[in-house]
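Tokens in:
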């Protein structure tokens, strides 16, 4: 499942995982959310109703460019810095690496820079 995350007029492509939580998120698209900074590591937004936790791992770690769901709070998280293991953190997907390594790194750096600023309005949408 591929999605786009559009912020400040630029779209970034993400690939979602094949798990029930990611499928539940995908089914809700398109979504317009305001992402707020959390711990200088991630941007978060609350989701209502909460996503399913069916077949979810107990927890996971996150890398920059990952989309996750933090089940205890019910929030979506886009990481712009690596983060260690957290109970209740469910992986949803990651920034796509469909281009060359150089382009992928540049896009990842650009996206991380965009996320590390102030609150950010973002549109999540399905891609073919």
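Residues out:
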């Amino acid at each position: 499942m591929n999605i786009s995350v559009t912020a400040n007029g630029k779209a970034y492509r993400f690939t979602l995982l094949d798990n029930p939580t990611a499928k539940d998120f995908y089914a809700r698209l398109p979504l317009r959310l305001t992402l707020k900074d959390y711990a200088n590591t991630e941007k978060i937004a609350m989701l209502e109703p909460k996503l399913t936790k069916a077949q979810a791992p107990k927890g996971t770690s996150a890398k920059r460019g990952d989309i996750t769901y933090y089940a205890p709070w019910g929030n979506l998280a886009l990481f712009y810095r690596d983060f260690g293991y957290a109970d209740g953190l469910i992986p949803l997907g990651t920034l796509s690496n469909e281009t060359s390594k150089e382009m992928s790194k540049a896009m990842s750096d650009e996206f991380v820079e965009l996320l590390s600023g102030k609150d950010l309005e973002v549109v999540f949408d399905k891609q073919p």
